[in-house]
UniProtKB/TrEMBL annotation:
InterPro entries: DUF6327. This is Uncharacterized protein. Pfam families: DUF6327.
């Protein structure tokens, strides 16, 4: 536990604690807003559509390569 020598030290620490409290509160608000945005139906749909499209391209590329390799072995 800290011992204070005068009221100025106490006031300084109280100001620091108040500022830290405000910073922490802003961090919570920011985290909440980011989570809320990332879980929005629009964002989820966009993410799912992007994944489906990406997987379709990978599948198409893979089948093309495998078909090419299969043709070489005939």
């Amino acid at each position: 536990m800290r011992e204070y020598k005068n009221f100025d030290e106490i006031e300084r620490d109280l100001k620091l604690l108040k500022l830290q409290k405000e910073i922490d509160k802003e961090k919570v608000v920011l985290s909440y807003n980011l989570a809320k945005e990332s879980l929005s139906p629009k964002r989820i749909f966009k993410s799912a559509a992007g994944s489906i499209f990406k997987n379709a391209l990978i599948l198409k590329g893979t089948t093309s390569v495998l078909g090419f390799i299969g043709d070489r072995w005939k």
